[in-house]
Structures are given as structure tokens and as C-alpha cells.
Design brief:
Order of helices and strands: EEEHEHEHEEHEEHEHEHHEEHHH
CATH class of the largest domain: Alpha Beta
Largest sheet: 8 strands, parallel
Number of strands: 13
Strand content: 5-15%
Number of domains: 2
CATH topology of the largest domain: TIM Barrel
Strand order of the largest sheet: 3-11-10-8-7-6-5-4
CATH architecture of the largest domain: Alpha-Beta Barrel
Low-confidence stretches: 1-5
Shape: globular
Mean pLDDT: 93
Radius of gyration: 19 Å
Length: 366
């Protein structure tokens, strides 16, 4: 078996990863303590998703902030108790309790905060001086990277510790217009080059390297090698980690990936105002025809959600799917979800990725 030691390592601020793989955050219970800790133990970066993290708390509706805060603390501590490694959280910038979750994670000594679904323009203000937590925004264009880095330089005199560049093949909410998802000019290859070009003069001015992490549609070890050769410092992968034993989703959720066909990938219009990539099922077909699913919102968890006019509650629908109830939900998934064929331990997945990485290098043209 190809040794993982042949992969390049990755430094993000003071953090040192043995392998340049960040596990992407998958919200509403898909990447929690189980998956994040398993990835961290293997030498990647494990990520706990905070979206919907408080749904198991009985007082969520009456005590929204504290319920989410309590659940986040417990999840981080549980992940830490399972072993060492680099552990982070993903906090959607659009969450109404974004600031509270960020402060809580930092208080718990989290290694990094990744944040997308909007630009976390004020995130550095939430990190106390001397705190070691790395800040990693997720962007979908060089323009977004420019807006964010300008704001951080002007207000906080700092650059991100790393940037995730997410392309249009990612699962979940996407930072693109639906009509742009197939535009070759917006491929991950192009986005990566554009963001790296934007960062180079800033890195020289600050004397600081900002690692760029490619995300969206990366599925094999060969994909990892290709994007590293294109200039990425690391990659973020989410979809392939769903079909692992340690993933926190239900067996039925994982089975939906195993049963998926390539044509089952579908773009939905989320109630939060963004397109999303999901797996087609009877529920997506029904809401696509205009069917509404009545709900009561007790907390308005996402700023951009038009509660009065939303056809369904995206958080409740995703929670239903996480628990295997696909009559009332659907699974977010990246464009390559259909390629999953089996459930494997995270350790075995890392070994497979290493073998694929080595095989692609051996077969590459000289």
C-alpha cells in the first residue's frame, strides 16, 4: 500500500497537517464529532458543521442561542476526547447566531473556523488577541476573495490564515447563480488560478503565505494530485467522507449515496436564496412542482431565509434526510456522489486516496 508519508504536508498558520486534506463541513448533523475526529486522527483536518447543531436540544425553540452553544461545546469536547489531531468548525456566515457560535468555538480552543455561505467580513473581530484559532473563509470567486481581503486588511490589518476556493461541483449551498454552474470560465481550475493571482501581491506585502485550498468535485487521489499541481496547497473533500463508517449520518442517508445514479444530481433553489446541489428524490420533485410544506419557524436560523414565503424549512428537511426520512427531506451531495460504491472506515479511505494519488502520478505523462 502506498504510504501517506509521500503526500505533501500543509501548514495553516500554526497548524500542521500531515496530509493536505480538509474534510468539508456538512451541516445538520452529517459531520459531527464522529467523522471530524476520525479525519483528525488520520492527519487531515476534521470539521464539525455548526448549522443545525442544536436540533437535538429540547429547549432549542425557547432558548435558541444557549441550546446551540451547549451542543457545540459538547460536540467539540466529544471529538477531542476521541483522539488528537487538527479539529475545526464550519460556521455559515448566513447563520443568525454566527457571532455566538464563533466565540463559543474559540473559547473551546478550536483549531480553525471555516466559513462560507456568505462572506465572514467581521470574523477577525471575534478572535481575541493572542488566540491561536485559524480563520479560513470559503469563497467562490477572486472578486469575493478581493472584497474579503480588503475588508480584513482595512479593519483588522490581517489576512486569512487560508482560503478555501469552492467551485460549482460542490454539494450543498453554492455561491453561484444557477445559470453559471456550467460556465467553463467558472471551473475550479480557473477560480484557483484567479484567487492565487489575487493573493500573491498581498502575500509579498505582508510577508505571509496564504494557503489556497481547492474544493468542489474533488473525489479521488488523482483529483488531489491534479489540484496540487495546479497550485493548490491542499484540498477540501466532503462528499466522499459521507460513505464512511464514522460519518454521523444515518445508514439510510449513506445508502442514498450508494443508490444514486449520475443523473440523480439536481440543482434546487433553497429557501435561503442560494442554489443547492442535492440528490433527486420524490421530495425534490414535489417542491420543484411548487408543492409547499407548511412549517412554523421559532428561531429564524438563517438571515437570508424568507420565512414568510419559503415553501419549506430547509433545516428541518435536511434533518429529516439525516435521519433517513426521505419522504420529507432530501440529501445535499456533490456532483460525484453517484460514484460511491461502499461504506468504508475513514482510515481505509485515506489509504485508498493515497493509492489513487500514487497511481495517477505513475500514469501521468513525463
Amino acid at each position: 500500500m502506498q504510504s501517506l508519508s509521500r503526500w505533501p504536508s500543509l501548514a495553516i498558520g500554526a497548524l500542521h497537517l500531515r496530509h493536505p486534506i480538509l474534510q468539508g463541513g456538512m451541516g445538520v448533523g452529517i459531520s459531527m464529532a464522529g467523522l471530524a475526529s476520525a479525519v483528525a486522527r488520520e492527519g487531515g483536518a476534521g470539521t464539525i458543521a455548526t448549522a443545525g447543531i442544536g436540533f437535538g436540544e429540547r429547549d432549542l425553540a425557547s432558548n435558541f442561542l444557549e441550546a446551540n452553544r451547549r451542543s457545540l461545546r459538547r460536540t467539540i469536547r466529544e471529538a477531542r476526547s476521541r483522539g488528537d489531531g487538527v479539529l475545526g468548525v464550519n460556521i455559515m456566515a448566513a447563520l443568525t447566531n454566527f457571532d455566538d457560535l464563533a466565540r463559543t468555538a474559540i473559547e473551546e480552543g478550536i483549531d480553525f473556523i471555516a466559513s462560507g455561505a456568505g462572506l465572514p467580513l467581521n470574523l477577525p473581530a471575534l478572535r481575541p488577541t493572542g488566540t491561536r484559532t485559524a480563520l479560513i473563509p470559503i469563497v467562490s470567486s477572486a472578486r469575493a476573495a478581493a472584497i474579503l481581503t480588503r475588508r480584513w486588511r482595512e479593519r483588522f490589518d490581517c489576512l486569512p490564515d487560508a482560503l478555501v476556493v469552492e467551485g460549482p461541483l460542490a454539494g450543498g449551498h453554492l455561491g453561484f447563480r444557477p445559470e453559471d454552474l456550467a460556465n467553463p470560465a467558472l471551473s475550479l481550475d480557473r477560480l484557483l488560478a484567479d484567487v492565487r493571482a489575487h493573493l500573491e501581491p498581498l502575500e509579498q506585502r505582508y510577508g505571509q503565505r496564504v494557503p489556497v485550498i481547492a474544493a468542489g468535485g474533488i473525489y479521488t487521489g488523482g483529483d488531489i494530485r491534479r489540484f496540487l499541481e495546479l497550485g493548490a496547497d491542499g484540498v477540501q473533500m466532503a462528499t466522499r467522507f459521507v460513505t464512511t463508517e464514522e460519518c454521523d449520518a444515518s445508514p439510510a442517508f449513506k445508502q442514498a449515496y450508494l443508490d444514486a445514479r449520475e443523473e440523480d444530481g439536481v440543482i434546487i433553489r433553497s429557501p435561503v436564496g442560494l442554489p443547492g446541489r442535492a440528490l433527486r428524490n420524490a421530495f425534490t420533485e414535489a417542491v420543484g412542482r411548487g408543492q409547499r410544506v407548511p412549517f412554523r419557524c421559532a428561531y429564524h436560523c438563517i438571515r437570508t431565509c424568507d420565512v414568510e414565503n419559503s415553501p419549506y424549512c430547509i433545516a428541518r428537511v435536511l434533518l429529516n434526510a439525516r435521519e433517513g426520512n426521505f419522504r420529507r427531506g432530501f440529501a445535499f451531495a456533490g456532483a460525484n456522489a453517484w460514484r460511491a460504491t461502499e461504506i468504508v472506515p475513514v482510515h481505509a479511505l485515506f489509504e485508498t486516496l493515497a493509492r489513487e494519488y500514487a497511481e495517477s502520478a505513475e500514469s501521468a505523462p513525463a
